[in-house]
Amino acid sequence: MKMKLSTAGLRTTPFLVIGSGIAGLYTALKLAEIADVTLISKDMLEESNTSYAQGGIAVALSPADSPDSHYKDTIKAGAGLCLPPAVTALVNEGPERVRELIAWGVPFDFDAVAGNFLMTREAAHSFPRVLHADGDATGREISKALARRVRSHPRITVKEYHYAVALLTGEEGCYGALVLDETGTQTSLLAEATILATGGCGQIFTDTTNPAVATGDGLALAYLAGAPLADLEFVQFHPTALHLDGAPSFLITEAVRGEGGLLRNRKGVRFMPSYHPQAELAPRDVVARSVWAEMAKTGSDHVFLDLSLLSAELIKRRFPNIYETCLGYGLDITKEPIPVAPAAHYMMGGVAVDLYGRTALPGLFACGEVANPGVHGANRLASNSLLDGLVFGHHIFEYLQSGGWTRPALPPELTAVFPTETNPEDLTADRLTLKELASAHLGIIRREEDLQNAQRRLAPATPAGPVPLSRPYLELQNMRLLVRLMLEAACTRRESRGSHYRADYPETDPNWRKRIVFSPAGISFIPADQSFDWPW
């Protein structure tokens, strides 16, 4: 559904940032060095995927480590689909961006005696390069530090509990967004440049480490406005989320395995060495599939993460958040193994952007999990996501600071496009049905027959009447749109690569070293080593 809106009498802010994870907060702070910024957050400022990130931020800070080693690990994990220039930027610029966080007061764990930051090793890393804060609360500490700076910054206007429902576009690009405040009142926010930093879409699955706000809104907004999406078949499932009756799929960070935690099946048998030479520290996609295979083999809905090789003192000091959370559910992890199962964790796919964060729509930028500059390929290397938000948020800042973009004159009228995927009778029931469908057919193991059956069930429907502009309704429509596109991507890629595993095409096919791109005009392909080039 399209809506036309008059621009008469509307004010324009220089920069509009949508989203308040690490990418949104950091980018807003940098852009405020240039001009005024309006930042909108769907919930409170600190509620984002970033706040739930435990493991840390991967960065080659140690003199014994190097960006080259980090580069090689990232490329290897990405299974042939990483864009080398994007990875080069990530690993080379990462140290400076992290030093900026340190200067801004993020309290990363530090060994005062040795005089260095504490680092840990995570899966598929060749070196302990994961920097953490408060043991296993890295994301929370980063969010708190950045949010404090944002709230107190004189050039940043914060609008919490504001939900972006559509981008506002004209013939020459994007001019801002239409948003709903917590009362449901509509407001048009116009901007010289609009930056999407809305995070991922884990909520389309029944089991996810993502918070309730992660419904993929930014992906849907960009697509409906005409900006292509790429690599939507690649969803990372974290192999170890807490699996207890009555408990959410609480993340059990990979750092637990980095410190010596072992995976065992329901019979108590350690199984990872039989699946991969790196055992518990194999790439995430490998560990998740191995856990899934053991669950199927033993007829269980979980496996166990055994911490018996770690002292109680180490567990409490290094993983206080996990320890306290599990204790709250009656599980003492210093004495008992943790029941775990895979859960949807991260979307490698996203809005197709170039290395400056530009989308195909002039005036619209994207960074963080919602964006896809090609840095993660088919499988993200552990703890690279927070660094991604910093590095590519900084690229947007550098581009806009250089004067590389000047918005065309504001037209008298703008267009907002809304998703019309279905006619829901019961929003809660329809949302649960969608999540169950996605989990059953877009999970760790995929098959063409299942994917096609799911596609038939999700054929778009003509709306019976006007589209209600409410958050519950539009979240469901956005989620349904994304599931439909993800099913098509998974069905189209007839091979197995990284996080995308097809039981009917179990091998990696070198002919599929290309990226699947979706736009409202249809589906297209580009070579894996070719960056998006948007000629604004």
Q: Tally the helices: what do you get? A: 13
CATH architecture identity of the largest domain? 3-Layer(bba) Sandwich
CATH class of the largest domain: Alpha Beta
Beta-strand percent range:
15-25%
Query: Could you say which overall geometry the principal axes of the C-alpha atoms support?
Result: globular
Q: What is the CATH T-level topology of the largest domain?
A: FAD/NAD(P)-binding domain
Helix share, percent: 25-40%
Number of domains: 2
Number of DSSP strand runs: 23
The gyration radius over C-alpha positions equals 22 Å
Low-confidence stretches are none
- What is the averaged pLDDT score? 95
| Distance between the first and last residues' Cα | 27 Å
CATH-assigned homologous superfamily of the largest domain: FAD/NAD(P)-binding domain
The largest β sheet comes out as: 7 strands, mixed
Structure classification: alpha+beta
Oligomerization state = single chain
Molecular structure report:
The protein has 536 residues and is of the alpha+beta class. It folds into two domains: 2-234 and 348-414, FAD/NAD(P)-binding domain, CATH 3.50.50.60; 238-343, Flavocytochrome C3, Chain A, domain 1 (Alpha-Beta Complex), CATH 3.90.700.10. It is 31% helix and 20% strand. The chain contains 13 helices and 23 strands. The strands form six sheets. Strands 2, 3, 9, 10, 11, 12 and 19 form a seven-stranded mixed sheet that branches. It has a five-stranded mixed sheet with strand order 20-18-13-22-23, with helices on one face. A four-stranded antiparallel sheet has the order 14-17-16-15, covered by helices on one side. Strand 2, helix 1 (22-31) and strand 3 (37-40) form a beta-alpha-beta unit. Helix 8 (312-318) crosses helix 9 (320-328) and helix 11 runs parallel beside helix 13. The two termini are 27 Å apart. The model has no long low-confidence stretch (mean pLDDT 95).
